[in-house]
Amino acid sequence: MTWPTPIDWTPGGAVRILDQTLLPHREAYRELATVDAVAEAIVSLRVRGAPLIGIAAAMGVAAVLGAANGPGREAALALVDSAGDALGRTRPTAVNLRWALERVRRAARAARGGWSEVAAAVRAEAQAIWDEDRRMCQRIGEAGLPLVPDGATVHTHCNAGALATGGIGTALAPVYTAHAAGRRIAVIADETRPLLQGSRLTAWELGAAGVPCTVIADGMAASRLRRGDITCVLVGADRIAANGDVANKIGTYALALAARAHGVSFYVAAPRSTFDFASAGGADIPIEERGPAELRCLAGHPTAPDGAAVWNPAFDITPADLVTAYVTDAGLLRRDQLATLKP
User: Fold this and answer.
1) 26-71 pLDDT, tens per residue?
2) N or C: fewer beta carbons within 10 Å in the chain?
3) 7-138: CATH number
4) Residue range 171-198, pLDDT digits in tens
5) Domains of the chain: which residue ranges?
6) CATH topology of domain 142-341
7) Neighbouring C-beta atoms of residue 257, cutoff 10 Å
8) 8 catalytically annotated
C-alpha cells in the first residue's frame, strides 16, 4: 500500500507539509521556516489532525531554532518558549498540540550547552515525537484488527488516516492493517461538513491505498446504518477526557447516536497522547469555534446569505457511554481501563 506523506524535513531543516486544503485536486507541498508560517498552516488546516499538528508544531519549533544562531542558551530557551506559546494558541481543542510543545520545552531545558546544543535537543525530540506516533499508529492498527474481519464495511467520519498522523492513522489504521492482511474491506466515509475532510481527504487516501470507499453526506449516516450492513463505526479523536468523553470533528456525536440506535458498535481510535487526564469530562474540553465563512460557503462559492447568523464549532463531545471501546496503542480498552494509560 502507498500512503501520502503529509510532513517531512527539508534538506535545509525547515518543515515540509502536504497542503491538505488543495486536495484532492492538487498535490502540492509547502516549506515552513518561521513560527508564523507554521501557525498559519495549522490554523488554515493546511496541516491537520490532532497527532499531526502536534508533530508539525514540534518540528516547527526545531526548524526556527535551527535556522538561527543566537547568543546562547538563555536566548535559545526564550525562543523555544515564545514559539511554543504562539503555536499553542492556534487550535485549542486538540490536546496533542499542547503535549508535543511541552515535550520540546522539556528537552530544551534539559539540554546542556549553548544555542546549538539546545537546537539539536529540540530537533531530536521533534523527530522522536514523529517516530513514536508512527509506531503508535501501527499498534493501533494491530489492536483494531479483530474489529475488521474479512468482508467488513467500516463507517468513519472526518479523516483519521495517514493524512492526520505521523503514520498509518488512528481510525483508519485497523482498516489498512486488515487490507494489508488480504482481507476484503470497504469504508463508508461521511463527507464531513463544512470542510469536507471525509470526501476530500479520506476518500483520496483510501483510493491511493487501494481500499474501496463510498462517500455519503453527513445527513445520510443514520439511513446508511439502518441498512444493517455496517460492521462497526471507527472514528478518531482530538481529545479524550479522563471519563472517556471524546472530542472529535463536529458530527461525530450524531454518528454515535445513530450507531447506538441501530445496534452498531462505535469505536474511538487514538494514541495515548490524545488522552487528557487533566480534563475530568467533556465539559472541561475547550471547543474551537471557527469563522462563519466556512459554513456560508462551499468550495469558495456562497451557499448562504452574507447576513445569515452562523454557529460553527469545529468539534463536538461524544459521551463515553456511547463508546463501545477505545482502540489504543496499548490495546483495545474499555472505559474502566483508561486509567491504565495515565503517564
Assistant:
1) 999 999 999 999 999 999 999 999 999 999 999 999 999 998 877 8
2) C
3) 1.20.120.420
4) 999 999 999 999 999 999 999 999 999 9
5) 7-138, 142-341
6) Rossmann fold (3.40.50)
7) 16
8) no
